[in-house]
User: What shape does this take?
Amino acid sequence: MITRWKQDQSGQSMVEFALMFVSFMFVMAGIFDFSRALFYYNSLSEAARVGARYAIVHGENASSPAGPCSNGASCSCDNSAAANASAIRAAVLTRTTGMSPGGVTTTCSWPDQNVSFTYLNSINKRVTVTVSYTYQPILTAFIPNANITLQGQVTSFIQY
Assistant: This one.
């Protein structure tokens, strides 16, 4: 009877290992995904800080001022939206390690206006740089529509 019971248990440890291995790999992938998302979030925050730093030292008194936007207070920092705004985007992209440059969105804003509603780029006026990226976790294959939009934003006062 004991011999027969031993024969019935012959694949149990392999089945337990397979179940635990799959569970363990899901947990590890989740930890890896969370760590990567946290890294990207910190990178976006740093990129926004660098972009704002570039903008505050390139105010209207600089030899190559950056901004404000020609069509209003907020615009994308691409080649045509604002004066030298592409330089802000270039500064931002130096800090987005591991992210696709095409997926990084940079928005610049000069929210302060004068009495004639002209957006200002002068000393002690504000500039805001917002950087966002759509993060796609590795586990998206198992969890549909799991994309997360990460964002970093910095507002600083123009210094020059």
User: Anything to note?
Assistant: The mean pLDDT is 82. The first helix runs from residue 2 to 8. The two ends are 90 Å apart (CA to CA).
